Amino acid sequence: MDNDLEQQAVEVLEPLGYEVLELDITGHANKRRLLLRIDRLDGQQVGMEDVTQATRVFGLELDRLDPFSTPYQLDVESPGPERPLKTAKHFERFINLLIRVKTPHELFKGKAVAVTEESVTFEIEEKSQVTSKEIRLSDISSARLAEWPDEPR
């Protein structure tokens, strides 16, 4: 169901200029929380007006779809420090910043130093030694910023 609702969020919010970064559903049947993280497609910072508009529009879509038989809480946020990175464009935007990366085989922190359409190269510092590791985007289970840039990107 998460993927279906995330796709519905994309369909109603993308035409308004928003990128759906993630939709996370937590809680149990009697008390669900939907956390929707959005970004602006034009690269500008997400403001309160954006959060308000996305909440209103996706809230109406949820009312139309009626996906739950019990009450739920919808929270819409800007990406903030928990920003998920999923596409080559995301990694390019945050090049040279520390990122927490999870693959099916490992979990590490590294700085993204090079990005292609298919892969990201990370510099990983362990015990005062720096190594490079290239990971295919398709092999990344999840990636999130581990540090916040000094200036908005």
Please tag this protein with its features.
single chain; 153 residues; alpha+beta; GMP Synthetase, Chain A, domain 3; SH3 type barrels; 5-stranded antiparallel sheet; 3-stranded mixed sheet
Write up this protein.
By secondary structure, this protein is α+β, with helices and mostly antiparallel strands. It is built from three helices and eight strands; from the N terminus they run αββαβαβββββ. The chain has helices at 2-13, 48-65, 88-93, and strands spanning 18-28, 31-40, 72-77, 98-102, 107-115, 119-126, 129-136, 142-145. α1 crosses α2. The protein is elongated and about 55 Å long.
Q: What global shape is seen?
A: elongated
Order of neighbouring strands in the sheet with most strands: 7-6-5-4-8
SS content category: alpha+beta
> Do you know the CATH topology of the largest domain?
GMP Synthetase, Chain A, domain 3
SSE string: HEEHEHEEEEE
Q: What separation lies between the terminal Cα atoms?
A: 32 Å
> How many separate helices?
3
**Number of folding domains?**
2
Main pleated sheet: 5 strands, antiparallel
Overall helicity: 10-25%
Cα gyration radius (Å): 17 Å
Number of strands: 8
CATH C-level category of the largest domain:
Alpha Beta
Q: What is the CATH superfamily classification of the largest domain?
A: RimP-like superfamily, N-terminal
Strand content: 35-45%
The average pLDDT is 93
By CATH, the architecture of the largest domain is named 2-Layer Sandwich
Residue windows where pLDDT falls under 50 for at least 5 positions: none
